[in-house]
Amino acid sequence: MNPTRNIVQSTLGFETWLRGQISVREPDLEVKHQFMADDIFMFFRATFYRWCERWYAACPSLANAEQVFAVGDLHIQNFGSWRDGHARLIWGVNDYDEVAMMSFAADLVRLIMSAEVAAEETPLCTLTLAEICECVREGYYAGLKDAPQPFVLERRHAWLLRLVRAALKEPKIFWRRWLRERTQPVGEDQVPVALAARLRQAMPKDVPIEFREMHKGVTKGLGSLGHQRFFAYTEHYGGPVAFEGKNMAPSAVLWATGKSGKDIHTDRLLKGPGRPSTPHTSTHESWLVRPIMSDCGRIDLAELQLEETAQELNFDQERLLFAMGYETANLHQLSKGRDELNDRLKSVKVGALKQATLTMLELLQEDFKMWRKYWRERQKAAGAPQSASGGLGRGIKSNQ
């Protein structure tokens, strides 16, 4: 770790390290840099490497708390729905790119931070930072009372099923956008040989397969923007079938802590005991292969405006954050006993989570402003047009 680095030096250092781990799509990194300058929530999502670097230096007490295999890059948009191997609709964490051994508190603080930053962008979200902390902590505490209980939306959690259904796109629209706006054909010779073979193995047999890649500038995960992604697509028995292959790198935690290693720990959470995993999802030679499905989606705080009253909206937000805390406890129990986590949680009160979040939010704001200035100066020097969005440009809300 080098706490004296600024965000620009940190980003350049991390990306140099990343190039030593995987093949990087350089144009996508440029797009990522632009997104980082446009919006503070996008900046937060795209810079987990910097968050880690700041976390260990700014919050050493919590950073050294009980260690678990943590999600790492946890935020409110890291939760979504999918179908498990028994065709049941499941809700929970659906991105495990940055799994690493970290303090259990790292996931909690990062989740709370993301909710606070998103709340600033959501006019109808009136939750204070203290209330967000309470919801997440209470959910986590509840999740430690029994053996892990994933969110299976078949008989229970009717309120969550309602939100999931409202967030999902109509299948016809989903596939039309995926084919026309999000991906484009690519020659098989452009796809790494090992991945092409793996994708063919996942697809229906004896059918023509089209390989595809993401359109430039289309995001599917800001943290991994720059990683190679390829898709296999076909029409089979009257409908579309598609699989994605995404190149994975070791967690940015290794870079932030100056440790060496090539291990990728995705499967520790993705395929942990009792976890309802998506069928045909697998990891192979640093590639994550998974099906593309229209009934996979996430619920944003901004989408909780379904003709509800302010009281109903606030209740949904609280329940959603509680469920996120609960699901986080589900995952932490895969590597640490609930009694140990319960004992440590007793000393991490709402006030400690709030203070750590405020500390990290202040550093986030500082980094965002510096990166935005750097990027604008770089674009101006290159004669490039400025982003139309103009960025968020606001501080973190003050109703703490």
SSE topology sketch:
Blueprint: H1 7-19, H2 26-38, H3 40-46, H4 48-58, H5 60-63, E1 67-70, E2 79-83, E3 89-93, E4 100-103, H6 104-121, H7 129-143, E5 151-152, H8 158-167, H9 171-182, E6 183-185, H10 193-202, E7 210-214, E8 229-236, E9 239-247, H11 252-257, H12 266-270, E10 282-284, E11 287-291, H13 310-332, H14 338-345, H15 350-382
Antiparallel strand pairs: 1-4, 2-3, 3-5, 6-7, 7-8, 8-9, 9-11, 10-11
Helix pairs in contact: 2-3, 2-15, 4-15, 6-7, 6-13, 6-15, 7-13, 7-15
Structure description:
This protein is α+β, with helices and mostly antiparallel strands and 400 residues long. The protein has one domain (7-382). It has helices spanning 7-19, 26-38, 40-46, 48-58, 60-63, 104-121, 129-143, 158-167, 171-182, 193-202, 252-257, 266-270, 310-332, 338-345, 350-382, and strands at residues 67-70, 79-83, 89-93, 100-103, 151-152, 183-185, 210-214, 229-236, 239-247, 282-284, 287-291. The strands form three sheets. It has a six-stranded antiparallel sheet with strand order 6-7-8-9-11-10. Strands 2-3-5 form a three-stranded antiparallel sheet. The chain is globular and about 60 Å long. The two termini are 31 Å apart.
